[in-house]
Amino acid sequence: MSTEPVVDRVRRQFAYEGVEATPAAVVSAVRRAGGVLGDRAVLRLAGQVRDEMIGAGPLAPLLSDPEVTDVVVNGTQVWVDRGAGMQRAAVRLNDADEVRRLAQRLVAACGRRLDDGQPYADARLPDGTRLHAVLPPVATDGPYLSLRTFRQRPFSLDDLVAHGTVEPAAAVVLSGVVAGRLAYLVTGGTGSGKTTLLSTLLGLVPATERIVLVEDAAELRPVHPHVVALQARTANVEGAGAVGLTDLVRQALRMRPDRLVIGECRGAEVVDLLGALNTGHDGGAGTLHANAPGDVPARLEALGMLGGLPRAALHAQVLAALQVVLQVRRTGRGRVLESISVLLPSGEERLATVVPAWELGRGAGPGAEVLARLFGERGIAVPDLLRPAGRPE
Q: Is 391 within the bounds of a domain?
């Protein structure tokens, strides 16, 4: 039996009756509309019908695949990323109108608007999946959909080591960074695994400490017994009600944080974060878009200018507030921790520079001695990775 007539009949029934499409209601409607079917067939059809009505439709199987991190739709072509780059998916979308209806339904379910007057939308689905949609004519060959999946199961540091994301010796250094309450940034390009690594490291924070998260979109889910999260809010259709990260950082400071964390530094809120880390809130963290560790100071400088912080003051704040930069990169074999670096002053102007303490494939770097000293000052055992060859403990 084709599922399309069942979908049409059930959709009309819910529209006519005005009943919420709960799983139980969908199963009951499918049983009535599908004729004589066994329980297994009814449940299978009900799942397909519900995906077509309120879920991701033909994209649902991809989003439920634990290996998939991203699903994108270009017109009617569907592509997926399972950690090794984009690959064409064996999913068929009939035409652009079907994609447009799917995009509008998903966006509407998040309380947002997507139409000719507002041809793009950024939203978060109920399961945490992040959705971005663009309609023609802005999307020249669209509609375009971009979905970043949200995984409920967080990774442990041992998981990252087992997956090859973090070298075993580097994992010991990461544990020391957290235990020593060093403030750090996880940096890298889009989709490089910054949020995954940060969430994993937050899970190493002692259970006696309170973590306050500030995020543009709720993505961090550390395994920790005392986490409170603040999420930015966009303006409503009237253009009112927006709550930005800068406001949330200031609120977070009043919430007795032991560790203040910004999911992603992308604007003037970096000034408030640096200020907070310079007033006794050590051990804080965040992520930052940067293609290479050496780009971090310039990136912070640009964001600091948005907050009205002069260049010299910004670099002084950075050097006083942050100690470590963790660079992650997306490679052909997956996402990897590429380097662990320290922030040090340079030149007469004492501008912040990033000096590698360890690099993948190269071992200890010139910043290793500095990081080892920071560990020692905070009572953390210095890992072998940071010890010069031949020097005893």
A: no
CA 135 – CA 152 distance, rounded (Å) = 30
Question: b or e along 288-315 (b: 16 or more beta carbons within 10 Å of the residue's beta carbon)?
Answer: bbbeebeebbebbbebbeebebeeeebb
Q: In terms of residue numbers, what domain contains 9? A: 1-54
Strands (E), 227-323: 227-231, 259-262, 285-289
pLDDT digits (tens, 9 = 90+) for 50-65: 555 556 778 888 888 8
Angle between helices 39-53 and 23-33 (to 10 degrees): 120
- Domain assignment present for residue 132? The answer is yes
For residue range 332-352, list pLDDT tens digits in order: 778 899 999 999 999 888 899
CA dihedral for 27, 32, 35, 39, sign (positive or negative):
positive
Phi, then psi, of 122 in degrees rounded to 5 = -120, 120
What's this model's pTM, rounded to 2 decimal places? 0.75
End residue of a domain, out of 132, 151, 170: 151
In whole angstroms, what is the distance from residue 291 CA to residue 382 CA? 29
